[in-house]
């Protein structure tokens, strides 16, 4: 399963970015914009894959017009996910941990 969801990126006063997902009630962060986007993709991959594996309904992505940005300087980005690719990452990580 592949798709995209919007996230809100919020620049932090101390540096870095917080990443909020309106459709998943979760957040992550990164020290740079690039790192924040990578962490957002990882968070979304885990959230969607976990929900699918547990038989939960995946919410439809919130329309951009319906997202309210309250923080000055914050902006919206689309984040992609691919549950098949994320499962391969998880399986590879589990094998690495088991081999240690």
What's the helix and strand layout?
Layout (H helix, E strand, L loop, with lengths): L1 E10 L5 E5 L4 E5 L2 H21 L21 E8 H17 L1
Antiparallel strand pairs: 1-2, 1-4, 2-3
What does this entry show, briefly?
The protein is α+β, with helices and mostly antiparallel strands. Helix content is 38%, strand content 28%. It has helices at 33-53, 83-99; strands at 2-11, 17-21, 26-30, 75-82.
Protein described:
This protein is an alpha+beta fold and 100 residues long. It has a single domain (2-99), classed as Double Stranded RNA Binding Domain. It is 38% helix and 28% strand. It has a four-stranded antiparallel β-sheet with strand order 3-2-1-4. A hairpin with a 5-residue loop joins β1 (2-11) and β2. α1 (33-53) crosses α2. The chain is flat, with a radius of gyration of 15 Å. The termini are far apart. The mean pLDDT is 91.
């Amino acid at each position: 399963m592949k798709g995209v969801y919007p996230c809100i990126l919020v620049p932090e006063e101390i540096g870095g970015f917080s990443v909020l997902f309106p459709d998943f009630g979760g957040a992550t962060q990164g020290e740079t914009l690039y790192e924040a986007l990578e962490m957002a993709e990882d968070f979304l991959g885990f959230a969607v894959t976990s929900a699918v594996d547990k038989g939960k309904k995946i919410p439809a992505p919130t329309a951009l017009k319906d997202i309210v940005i309250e923080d000055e300087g914050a902006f919206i980005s689309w984040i992609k996910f691919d549950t098949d690719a994320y499962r391969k990452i998880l399986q590879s990580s589990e094998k690495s941990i088991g081999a240690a």
